[in-house]
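Why should sequence recovery work at all? Because a backbone constrains its sequence more than one might expect. Tight turns favour small or flexible residues, buried strands favour hydrophobic ones, and helices have their own preferences. The token representation captures these environments compactly. In the example below, the structure is given first.
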């Protein structure tokens, strides 16, 4: 060994060894990245206390760039809404004028589509408006017998979800619970009512069983479509948590931060719990915001109650 160490190593051999070591390290790093896509981006942020990095992690979890895709298809839902008069296609086109605000989704108002319903940062407004239309016009026990009618049909037209609907071809109360777009059985109506009572939204303190704003009415419409298509209740909650997240991004990043602080990752959060009054109502969301002292860096888009 001493004799070997005393010998000089040729320069070409040093270069050869160094080159091959670099290649091996590079191949190892490539393999790791391939097996764990996204890890090099997220890993450094997890070990830092920089608020912006933490926000980016939470945003990736709550608002994935690729969006969220449900297991329900559009079919001819849009065309039936147009036919019912709840959607005026001309007015819709005036609202959705670019790809950035959902113009590409206008195709779903015609024909029969075998594509899955999906939501992302670009089309969240189209999704809330279209399911608002469905919840408003579909014949519903929630609308006919629930809190919306507590002061009679005359006053039912004064809520944000009714008086605020200005893009139909008929007066809003002629549209209200007027068509069986989705023919639900008595049993299915009961399931819709039960689920609706468990789902809240951060713009008010009412559940979806009292859909007095656009987000509540849209959630009702989606629940009806999901129940009609036989979607399990657990999955309906997951879908609506994703919808609410894109409609109220700031709020749900803060809720994710709250759960993360308690040791629960967003993917493991019980969707039904997150949508409950304690977290997703206006009062609940305010409590969460105070608890996490606000999370900077998220644009609060999609949370308005108008068309």
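From this structural description, the recovered sequence reads:
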């Amino acid at each position: 060994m001493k004799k070997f160490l005393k010998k000089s190593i040729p320069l070409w051999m040093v270069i050869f060894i160094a080159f091959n070591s670099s290649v091996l390290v590079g191949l190892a790093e490539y393999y790791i990245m391939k097996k764990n896509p996204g890890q090099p981006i997220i890993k450094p942020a997890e070990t830092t206390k920089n608020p912006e990095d933490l926000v980016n992690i939470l945003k990736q979890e709550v608002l994935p760039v690729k969006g969220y895709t449900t297991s329900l298809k559009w079919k001819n839902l849009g065309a039936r809404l147009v036919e019912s008069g709840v959607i005026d296609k001309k007015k819709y086109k005036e609202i959705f004028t670019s790809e950035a605000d959902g113009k590409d989704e206008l195709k779903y108002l015609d024909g029969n589509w075998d594509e899955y319903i999906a939501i992302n940062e670009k089309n969240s407004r189209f999704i809330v408006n279209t399911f608002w239309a469905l919840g408003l016009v579909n014949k519903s026990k929630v609308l006919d017998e629930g809190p919306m009618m507590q002061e009679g049909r005359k006053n039912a037209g004064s809520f944000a979800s009714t008086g605020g609907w200005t893009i139909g071809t008929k007066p809003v109360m002629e549209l209200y619970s007027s068509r069986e777009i989705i023919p639900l059985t008595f049993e299915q109506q009961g399931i819709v009512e039960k689920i609706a009572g468990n789902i809240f939204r951060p713009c008010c303190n009412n559940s979806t069983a009292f859909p007095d704003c656009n987000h509540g009415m849209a959630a009702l419409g989606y629940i009806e479509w999901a129940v009609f298509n036989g979607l399990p209740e657990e999955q309906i909650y997951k879908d609506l948590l994703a919808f609410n997240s894109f409609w109220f991004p700031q709020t749900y990043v803060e809720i994710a931060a709250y759960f993360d602080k308690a040791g629960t990752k967003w993917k493991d959060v019980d969707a039904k719990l997150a949508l409950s009054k304690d977290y997703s109502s206006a009062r609940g969301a305010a409590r969460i915001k105070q608890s996490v002292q606000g999370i900077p860096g998220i644009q609060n888009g999609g949370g308005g109650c108008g068309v």
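A few observations help interpret the result. The chain has one domain: 59-292.
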